[in-house]
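Intended use. Records like the one below are meant for learning the mapping from a protein sequence to its folded structure. Do not use them to infer anything beyond what is encoded.
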Amino acid sequence: MEATKGYVSQQNLLTPNDGSEWPVRLNRRAEIITPDPILQFAMEGRVYEVSNPTKGTAVAAGGTSYSDTAPAFLVDVPVGTSIVPLEILLKQGGTVAGAVITVLLTADNKLRYSSGGTAQTVRNNRTDAPFSSACSAYSGASAITAAAAGVARTFWASMLSPDVSPTADVEFPGFSNCVEWSIRDKVPPVLVGPASLVIYAYAGTTQASWFYTIKWLELPSAAVV
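Structure written out for the chain above:
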């Protein structure tokens, strides 16, 4: 049987140029090495994120009742661009909610941003930022006004405890007090622009403040469809 054409390079990483032909990389047991795809996209500079604009300052967002046109966070995806959510983290800080919080993570097939809110700086997950995001992101530090939903899809939902004290488990048994959504254990939506990632996080009373991180893989739609 003919052996797989490959090369072993454990001590020295080779760096072929884009477009060059190269045999597959093998380890010393002649097994093909394939990196984790999410790590690979991050290394290539295809992962982007938004987070609190001021470290140590939680952002008040979400309101005290559900409104389709008033989300807590929103990412608009333009025509020609596609994204896949990778990680969404929401943790209370500063002012905690006054009652149970409802969180909805949704994907829509249209651009939703209309006005208001606070525009967020979208950063490349790679510190030298080899690419720039085509998306626009907003937080509800001042109320976001969104267009009515097109074909919205709720891909995750939960109710959260409003309390972050040690007694929260007693007062709200079975309730988490944060969102830790990850592609590692969920099937994500694929948002082919025009589209939007829309996050609702509304409390029964007293709007919560959040430390948050929203990360996504972003590609030209030609690489997806």
